[in-house]
Write a structure and sequence with these properties.
D-amino Acid Aminotransferase, Chain A, domain 2, 7 helices, aminotransferase, alpha+beta, 9-stranded mixed β-sheet, transferase, 2 domains, pyridoxal phosphate, 6-stranded mixed beta barrel, D-amino Acid Aminotransferase, Chain A, domain 1, 19 strands, binds pyridoxal-5'-phosphate
Length: about 350
């Protein structure tokens, strides 16, 4: 792995700030960006010129490899500010590790952990005014890497750009969503790229999801590509089922993204004494669970929404609705996790990291 002097980040400050134009109470997720970004280029086999500079469009050659062959990976993280104005990240090492395993899968260079961390921390400090205090206020962090190499020859690029951009976000409650269980389309396959956080996985989901939207479903629950009988992910989130008082989620695999929220909820449940199983859940089990009343909850888990409750699902033209419950485990875990992330309660796991 090549390295660079991560401590020599050049900083070019924006002459003015856009922050006064932003209505922090009414933010649409991922649509407003802070004053600065972090950038570093991979050229001649090494990462060079790490720079923090004003957020702005930039020029690229039309033949850049990312436009043609989709070498593009990203991460999603959040920063939080506590009552003492300290800035916190949640398990950033997990995102950096996953970013680099996505890079390996997409034949892209890894970003040295120190460069990633230094770039992110310095960027957060410069734009710290954009991180608002209080439960529900977060700064969404989007690190990404694209292939910038010249020419449409179908080979991995030899040049890349790594960037981090920041977007203030309000905690959002997705409402209770209805989902369609995939019978034909697949998100991922064995030997494929489902475990990588790469742009094409999202592009491939848009069309089947738009078909589901037309039928009144907000998301698709993805099933295994071979048999379409095992439940794997909900949209771009990992998925959990509560059967009686046991939480069940599919084990991670080549087809399932190893979500930080997923693994945190599993560890929290274990600590709380909530029964948790990592095993495949069959579509038939859900339908039986609705019929005999053992299926209590379904929810998605991911950084953006944290936990997203699902109120019903359709399978083979039939719609099944979950019973209303008072004691949602999903919402209890969500509250505990967000309180921990915002430093409102103690963090017995050592997951929160002060920058
Ligand atoms: C990002 C992502 C998740 C959630 O991962 P977190 O680390 O919890 O944000 C789940 N599934 C897919 C497909 C994803 O891209």
């Amino acid at each position: 792995m090549s390295t660079t002097q991560a401590n020599k980040i050049e900083i070019i400050k924006a002459p003015t700030t856009k922050i006064n134009e932003v209505d922090f109470e009414n933010l649409n997720f991922g649509s407003v960006f802070t004053d600065h970004l972090f950038e570093c280029d991979f050229k001649n086999g090494e990462w060079q010129n790490p720079t923090i500079k004003p957020y702005a469009p930039f020029m690229m050659d039309p033949s850049s490899r990312v436009f043609h062959y989709g070498q593009a990976i990203f991460e999603g993280m959040k920063a939080y500010k506590d009552d003492n104005n300290d800035i916190w990240l949640f398990r950033p090492d997990e995102n950096i590790k996953r970013f680099n395993s996505s890079a390996v899968r997409m034949a892209m260079p890894e970003v040295p952990e120190q460069l990633f961390t230094e770039g992110l921390n310095q960027l957060l400090k410069l734009d710290e005014a954009w991180i608002k205090k209080g439960l529900g206020n977060t700064l969404y962090i989007r690190p990404f890497m694209i292939a910038t190499g010249f020419g449409v020859v179908a080979n991995p690029s030899d040049e890349y750009k790594f960037m981090i951009i920041l977007s203030p976000a309000k905690a959002y409650y997705s409402g209770e969503v209805k989902v369609l269980i995939a019978e034909h389309f697949s998100r991922a396959a064995n030997g494929g790229i489902g475990a990588a956080k790469t742009a094409g996985n999202y592009a491939g989901q848009f069309y089947p999801t738009s078909l589901a939207n037309k039928e009144g479903f907000q998301q698709v629950i993805w099933t295994d590509d071979a048999t379409h009988t095992k439940l794997e992910e909900a949209g771009t989130m990992n998925v959990f089922f509560r059967i009686n008082d046991t939480l069940v989620t599919a084990p991670t695999s080549e087809r399932i993204l190893d979500g930080v929220t997923r693994k945190s909820l599993i560890d929290m449940a274990k600590r709380e004494g909530i029964a948790i199983e990592e095993r495949s859940v069959l579509v038939s089990e859900l339908i039986e669970g609705i019929k005999d009343g053992s299926l209590k909850e379904i929810f998605g888990a991911g950084t953006a929404a944290v936990v997203s409750p699902i109120k019903g699902f359709a399978y083979k033209e039939e719609y099944f609705e979950l019973p209303k419950i008072e004691d949602s485990i999903a919402l209890q875990l969500k509250e505990k996790l967000t309180n921990m992330q915002h430093k409102l309660t103690e963090d017995p796991f050592g997951w929160t990291v002060k920058i």
